[in-house]
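step=encode ok
step=design start
structure_in=
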């Protein structure tokens, strides 16, 4: 008798359990966040309040379709940044402090599905964070989006989320819970102010505008405003965002590897 060779696993068969585990981690992390109501409220509340208190009272903005769309796009960029940094920065650091995290890392599954679950969870909260802005903007401002621009705006959520997800992972895998929370706050708000997310860059002095154009928040803001309004943005926006994405990807990989080596040698 001749031995029969075991059938090779096809790429599709290999991908199915990976995708199943990724969905499981996404569901677990989403439910874990939902069980802390203040985390959900904070994620949804601040961008909407900023719109209500700083934009809605200004008739010159709310009555002008282009200006109100740009204002909502800026705050939408801030909402995505906030969701990604808190989910992956403070959230990852908090998970690492739990005994369950060490147990999960001892399981035979590779870390890819769990990391994919984190990224998908952060992306999901990024979309959820935009809901109050869209509702308030539709009801109280003259902002408008054509179906094509709305589709482009939905795609831009992913483009903006990627670099700030990587930044959040770098912080979360490098620091303790208390340190990560403080660093996220210290990084988020200066980047938001200097990136033109709370006030348009047109009002910046020359020196601040020059610094601002080298920041990932400003690059993301310019691209989102260009997609949603059609107003031409800075020619440096896309190269700057891609450069920051590459740098932050290298930092995130280094942080994950350093954490694995330090805790699981």
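sequence_out=
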């Amino acid at each position: 008798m001749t031995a029969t060779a075991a059938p090779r696993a096809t790429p599709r068969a290999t991908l199915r359990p990976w995708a199943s585990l990724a969905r499981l981690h996404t569901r677990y992390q989403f439910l874990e966040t939902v069980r802390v109501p203040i985390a959900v409220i904070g994620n949804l509340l601040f961008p909407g309040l900023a719109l209500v208190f700083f934009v809605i009272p200004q008739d010159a903005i709310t009555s002008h379709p282009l200006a109100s769309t740009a204002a909502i796009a800026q705050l939408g960029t801030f909402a995505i940044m906030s969701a990604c940094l808190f989910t992956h920065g403070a959230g990852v650091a908090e998970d690492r402090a739990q005994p369950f995290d060490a147990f999960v890392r001892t399981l035979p599954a590779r870390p890819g599905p769990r990391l994919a679950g984190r990224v998908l969870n952060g992306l999901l909260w990024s979309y959820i964070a935009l809901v109050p802005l869209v509702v308030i903007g539709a009801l109280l401002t003259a902002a408008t989006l054509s179906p094509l621009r709305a589709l482009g705006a939905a795609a831009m959520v992913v483009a903006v989320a990627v670099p700030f997800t990587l930044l959040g992972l770098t912080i979360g895998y490098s620091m303790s819970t208390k340190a990560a929370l403080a660093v996220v706050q210290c990084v988020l708000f200066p980047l938001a102010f200097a990136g033109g997310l709370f006030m348009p860059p047109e009002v910046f002095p020359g020196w601040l505008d020059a610094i601002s154009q080298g920041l990932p928040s400003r690059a993301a803001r310019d691209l989102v405003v260009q997609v949603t309004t059609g107003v031409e943005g800075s020619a440096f926006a896309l190269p700057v965002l891609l450069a920051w994405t590459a740098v932050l990807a290298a930092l995130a990989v280094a942080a994950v590897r350093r954490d694995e080596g330090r805790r699981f040698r």
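step=design ok
step=annotate ok -> The mean pLDDT is 85.
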